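USER: I would love a firmer grasp of how sequence relates to backbone shape in proteins. This is the protein in question:
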Amino acid sequence: QVQLVESGGGLVQAGGSLRLSCAASRSIFSINASWYRQYPGKQRELVASIFSRGSTFYADSVKGRFTISRDNAKNTLDLQMNSLKPEDTAVYYCYGRWPGYDSWGQGTQVTVSS
């Protein structure tokens, strides 16, 4: 099983930036990986994905503000979040899919004050 550990969450004012990082216990080279977020009482929703060949996908609500990337040497998946809005307040989870199994991180809280 692969362990994913998120970091970088916190409290920021609207318009500010945060960078989330997800450290994996094994190689993330060429896997499909994503960031999700979850509001209280709601299902997790997809925020951004990066695919095996490097293409990316963003939810409309974050397009142009968030950037997903990975560092294969460090086995980390990052999410740069700019121009944050109060509606971005949520618990953010990283997710990775390896051949035959997948894994979720424990989540990190992001709070954006108005």
Remarks:
- The chain has a mean pLDDT of 96.
- The two ends are 40 Å apart (CA to CA).
